[in-house]
């Protein structure tokens, strides 16, 4: 029985011979391969080419290719300035450095695992040109297509890294923007920037390009559509110290002479109280000639300039322009464009065309230690208020007194010297005169036609006047339109019996 099992599992002789032959063939092939295969070559390290690095500048565009001999499969670096990248496959350096300084940079090239000798370089990154970093304020020209004729503003903050952020306004549109300045080494090319302003489809984005001219503290630029009309952008860098300008400045906003008497335009004068802080900030309290009260905040430029842009009447109007403060003379001059489209209100509901207001004024200091305002001699009839235009039957002058310590003496209603029933006071801290009258359009013999109005004016040093406006409805009905007339307070030089 055992012999039968043993014979059943024993492989035939033919199979044994075939297996042995296959083993011999495989062994012989392996031996032949080992004898004929070439020897493995050792990898040769590349050699980086030394060079004298050019100076870089913060914000400047860098595109440099490392040079080498031999074969390089990858690269590495240590100490590269922030904002720059090394392509580890090609050895190309790109980007814009963000931080100035002297950098020690180490480059290494590899061929597989074979490393080159380190290439150590001292590479200088210069800072932005002096006076580039900071805050900027600029105005956009008025344009019917780009901003509805209301103008606009651009405010930028440029960091020491060359990055900038800001806000651009165009009429009712307001967009945040950001980007990086393009800066060229050498100190002869002004830093510049560009960004896109989005618009709703189907309109394409607007293109803004701007330059910060070296050493001027200015910002100039353009806004346009592709192949479209171009409008200008102009502004300045805000100072961070303004000791020579600190204090309050009182400014009158007056019509040009050519429009006086044209009832299409508010005939009164607006005014602005401007307070300049030690860091260049300017806070505004404004009252326009139609009675619209506003506040604003702007910054002071290196030449004493400031830029104002405000949208008015629920985006149906604006006031915009530049003003310059002269710290030596203590005076201020400027021009502000004012426009209103049709917008329902009791004052000029049909609006009025764009016109330029003369923004002239002076530094204001309250009278101290009993000193008389504007150097007046105390008296009972030494001052007067002049009312003109604004729908009055005829202009008139109201005489009153400024007594010692600037106490006011206003004629009583019963005296017959105050038929307009005026009452008013002066805040000498701010230089603001405010009041009202219940018979401001009094006409002798027709007292029943009298209308109630109110008024305000600002003391303007240098001119020795209070300049402002009064508001008077065209009738005594509750919904009657309200017109603006001019109010000027000054020393009374006419003898009063």
For this entry, give a set of tags:
Immunoglobulin-like; Porin; Lipocalin; 8-stranded antiparallel β-sheet; 7% helix; disordered N terminus
Overall geometry comes to elongated
**CATH architecture classification of the largest domain:** Beta Barrel
The biggest beta sheet is recorded as:
8 strands, antiparallel
Beta-strand percent range: over 45%
Low-confidence stretches: 1-16, 23-37
CATH topology of the largest domain: Lipocalin
Radius of gyration: 40 Å
Total number of beta strands: 34
> What is the rounded distance between the termini?
163 Å
Q: What structural class do helix, strand and pairing data support?
A: mainly beta
Quick synopsis:
The chain is built from three helices and 34 strands.
What does this entry look like structurally?
The protein is mainly beta and 497 residues long. It is built from 3 helices and 34 strands. The N terminus is likely disordered. The N and C termini lie far apart (163 Å). The strands form 6 sheets. An 8-stranded antiparallel β-sheet has the order 14-13-12-11-18-17-16-15, with no helix packed on it. Strands 22-21-20-19-26-25-24-23 form an 8-stranded antiparallel β-sheet, with no helix packed on it. Strand 15 and strand 16 form a beta hairpin. The chain folds into 4 domains: 80 residues, Immunoglobulin-like, CATH 2.60.40; 104 residues, Porin (Beta Barrel); 122 residues, Lipocalin (Beta Barrel), CATH 2.40.128; 119 residues.
């Amino acid at each position: 029985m055992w012999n039968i099992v043993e014979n059943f599992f024993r492989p035939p002789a033919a199979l044994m011979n075939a297996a042995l032959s296959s083993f011999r063939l495989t062994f012989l092939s392996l031996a032949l391969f080992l004898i004929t295969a070439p020897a493995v070559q050792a990898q040769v390290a590349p050699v980086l080419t030394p060079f004298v690095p050019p100076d870089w500048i913060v914000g400047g565009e860098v595109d440099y290719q490392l040079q080498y001999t031999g074969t390089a499969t990858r690269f590495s670096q240590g100490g590269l300035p922030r904002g720059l990248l090394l392509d580890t496959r090609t050895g190309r350096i790109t980007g814009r450095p963000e931080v100035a300084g002297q950098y020690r940079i180490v480059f290494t090239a590899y061929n597989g695992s074979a490393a080159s000798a380190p290439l150590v370089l001292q590479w200088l990154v210069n800072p932005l040109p002096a006076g580039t970093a900071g805050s900027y304020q600029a105005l956009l020209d008025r344009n019917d297509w780009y901003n509805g004729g209301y103008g606009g503003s651009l405010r930028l903050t440029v960091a020491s890294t060359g990055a900038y952020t800001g806000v651009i306004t165009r009429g009712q549109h307001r967009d945040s923007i950001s980007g990086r300045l393009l800066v060229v080494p050498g100190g002869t090319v002004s830093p510049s920037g560009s960004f896109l302003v989005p618009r709703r489809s189907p309109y394409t984005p607007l293109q803004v390009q701007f330059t910060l001219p070296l050493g001027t503290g200015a910002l100039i630029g353009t806004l346009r559509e592709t192949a479209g009309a171009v409008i200008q952008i102009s502004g300045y860098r805000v100072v961070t110290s303004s000791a020579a300008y600190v204090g309050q400045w009182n400014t009158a906003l007056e019509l040009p002479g050519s429009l006086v008497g044209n009832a299409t335009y508010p005939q009164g004068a607006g005014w602005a109280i401007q307070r300049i802080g030690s860091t260049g900030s300017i806070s505004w309290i404004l009252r326009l000639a139609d009675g619209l009260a506003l506040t604003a905040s702007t910054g002071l430029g290196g030449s004493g300039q400031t830029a104002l842009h405000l949208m008015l009447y629920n985006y149906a109007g604006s006031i915009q322009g530049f003003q310059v403060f002269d710290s030596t003379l203590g005076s201020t001059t400027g021009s502000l464009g004012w426009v209103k489209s049709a917008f329902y209100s009791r004052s000029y509901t049909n609006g009025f065309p764009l016109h330029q207001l003369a923004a002239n004024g002076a530094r204001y200091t309250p009278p101290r230690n009993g000193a008389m305002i504007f150097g007046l001699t105390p008296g009972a009839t030494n001052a007067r208020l002049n009312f003109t235009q604004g729908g009055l039957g005829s202009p008139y002058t109201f005489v009153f007194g400024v007594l010692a310590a600037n106490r006011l003496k206003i004629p009583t209603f019963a005296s017959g010297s105050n038929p307009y029933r005026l009452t008013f006071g002066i805040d000498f801290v701010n230089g603001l005169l405010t009041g009202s009258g219940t018979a401001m359009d009094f006409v002798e013999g027709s007292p029943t036609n009298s209308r109630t109005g109110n008024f305000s004016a600002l003391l303007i040093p240098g001119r020795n006047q209070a300049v402002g406006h009064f508001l008077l409805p065209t009738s005594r009905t509750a919904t009657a339109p309200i017109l603006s007339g001019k109010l000027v307070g000054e020393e009374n030089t006419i003898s009063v019996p």
